[in-house]
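quick one before i forget lol
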Amino acid sequence: MSRELLSSKIVVEEEEPRVRGIPSAPTSVAGAVGLAERGPIGQAVLCTSFEEYQATFGGFTPDSDLALAAMGFFENGGSHLWTVRTVHYEDASAPESHTATRAAAALTTGGGPTPAVVRGTLRPPFTLADGQRLEVSVNGAEAVDVVFSGAAASVSAGRPGPYALTAGQALRVRVDDGRDVFIPFSEEDFDDITQATAQEVAAVLNAGLVGGRALVAEGVLRIASDTQGASSRLEVGDEVAGTVFGFPGGPQVGSGNVQSLRAVELAEVRALVEAAVAGVRVAPSSLGTLQLLTQATGPGASLHVQGDAGPGLGLDALPHMGDASGATDVLHLEAKDAGAYANRIEVEVRPATNGAPDTFDVLVLEDGTYRESFPNLSSAENDARYVERVLNDERTGSSYIRAFMVQPGAFPDGQTVALAGGDDGLVGLDDTDFIGSEAGRSGLLRTRRSARRLPPPGARASHACRPQRHGALLRGGPRRPRLRRPRLARGLQRHGHRLLRLAGGRPRRTL
């Protein structure tokens, strides 16, 4: 470049920077994944102080340093911590497959006739198959069928193979609530990419799909979600999908009377059974398992459950009878969060503070210390102090337990029960449980989506993209003009020399 002397022995040169700066990134926002004493599993929760962390995830545990790391983060100036509690998952892409369990118990009343009860041995969610059924007979009446159904969302190609593909083309697929996945086609995946068979295309798709599968039936290429039920979704859409394969546009929706057959919830079983079978109720047992009860009580009440859905729900096929007198579950209690911490919780029932005979007080103890008190509760659903409504209120309810009425209208005797059966679900824990899954929206991937996305390595911070004036140095551009005599330049500025022509005939820039 020209080094022509312009005025007052000032020469300006432009040089490439010798050291590329590293853009700054905020350090007051962080994500953490680990084992916690309690709290929601697989969900990113924003904590802005260590006290907030403790209120949601509990304190220090011998199995994890997550609480210690959170305390250190806030003590060193951190302000926003996105925290995800993880446990072991049988399938990382299925959030409901985690192995942690909730502790549970039941408040009972005694002395009166009891209903016939079929108690299950499995906790929800349940895994069933399409078309499985329960045959329920109440009080000796003819059995009524309850059928569970679910079909996956799927699409079939409108054109038979072979398909004329081009290297670099990609097919866009979205399964359930996941993100768009672009599956590329390359020459090495086919014997002849311009004459790709349906079987070859299915093999490529299966290598890239998460939560779905491709198959060939009678020569037709088909893509389906792994979820069987009403929550199943599938969308295959772009130019390649339509012009090459002939896939229909728009999202396809699954069908069935449950959201997912591989994760049937107790509420879904209750809705189906109680709608089809008169005289029977469905409720959780004291251990959180499924149980069916007759509305009739006493020795004349009977209940018999058969069918191929019974084993999947943990129900036996034996006949059950009511009793003339015995203890009856009134209120099912379960820990608000899964984990072994809740095995230290007890629930005490006392006579009502207001002295009313049809109300009662509930107190919650942790390690023998009273933590919460809910006075003057009622078993009547239309009462303002209805026990379910009060204990389960998100804002003012219990921080430790949830309650569900099993015997409507009845109220429990005075008693103290301990929750049991809680487990942290740590057996088989591995790196996959911490990293998580895009399809399952868990682990580190869940934290990354929740926290503010940081610029990738080498990218500019947003503030570095704005030119800033520092004397004659313009920052933010790819090249930097450098002054050989900065002290002399500042002197010229003080004496009215406001413009400077860059060497080489460049446009003039303000100092």
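fyi Confidence is low (pLDDT under 50) at residues 452-486, 492-511.
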